[in-house]
What we know:
- The protein is of the alpha/beta class.
- Helices cover 41% and strands 13% of the residues.
- The chain has a single domain (2-362), classed as TIM Barrel, CATH 3.20.20.70.
- Strands 1, 2, 3, 4, 5, 6, 7, 8, 9 and 10 form a ten-stranded parallel β-sheet that branches.
Amino acid sequence: MSNDWMRLAQRALDGQPPSADESLALLRAPDDEMPSIVAAAGMLRRRFFGNTVKVNFLVNIKSGICPEDCHYCSQSKLSKAPIDKYSLLSGDDILKAALRGHEFGARRVCIVASGRGPSDADVGHIATAVREVKSALPDAEICACLGLLATEQAAELHDAGVFAYNHNLNTSESFYGDICSTHTYADRVETVGIAKEQGLSPCCGALFGMGESDEDIVEVAQELRRIGVDSIPVNFLIPIQGTPLAGRWALTPTRCLKILSLMRITNPDRELRIAGGREHHLRSLQAMGLLVANSIFIGDYLTAKGQRPEDDIAMIRDLGFEILGEAHGETRPSVQDESAGESRKEAGIALKSRDERLSPASETGATH
Length: 368
Ligand code: SF4
């Protein structure tokens, strides 16, 4: 069988993605096929991204108080999870958090706000903050993730220096109604299109482990290819206590690797990012995930603790990979740098200590 997976990858290289049946066969392959599947997907990863890893850093600038009912999300109106709730951070706090991410090698800074979508005043505030971040970190790629977006808002963000806009499809159109009723799959596709039309790089991915079928996974992988996204965050559900999906632990590490491999073989030259839930679901196989994906979040997620950035950087280096940007002479802290480790305590959301803002019951991933 291993030759079949490599043949599938070779065909993807020639511009022909796997059929639905081939994709289902990959997802349903016995676990002892997993190393061959990863090798085939890894060939594509090497071809398009060499040995580089892009490091991304999340800044959660507004948390909770969302009127939407996304079942996976600890910030939704349905959630009883005891998360931190706060309105938009000040421009200074956004800049401080972005600088912290940059210290750890983050090329992309993802500015995320909860809610159905931003008001025009929110967009104005964020645009001003982005100008400050770009002035301090001209090489940083700024990605905004603010929910459903209007055309003028997308244009304003682009003018301010936002590079990418994240809005995830999360799952297939067929399954979408099972995880959210307050907006539609079509709403999400529309926002991705608006961002793209206004010159923002479309960042759009999915969340797995919510009870979707294999067919749903194949459908969303193919849809992301069809709508032409540039980067694909792959989230694995953290079934948060207090949300409708609490207790739904449906994934295994090998299942996650097969999903990542399918996303790569279907979208061979797109930036594939391992996002929320990797520590819980890939567990000791996290490093194998980077043989397929070329991009990773470092540090904490929206309201979830990630593993220590020092450990992530060590994992990247142990694999023989280099962090995108380092090759150009930028300096990064040593993984043994104690002061750098301290600064992490303030990374991410409210600039409080981790213990103050995190508990196992309050975790959520990187999706919105
Ligand atoms: S995913 Fe976004 S839109 Fe949905 S409930 Fe959470 S914050 Fe609101």
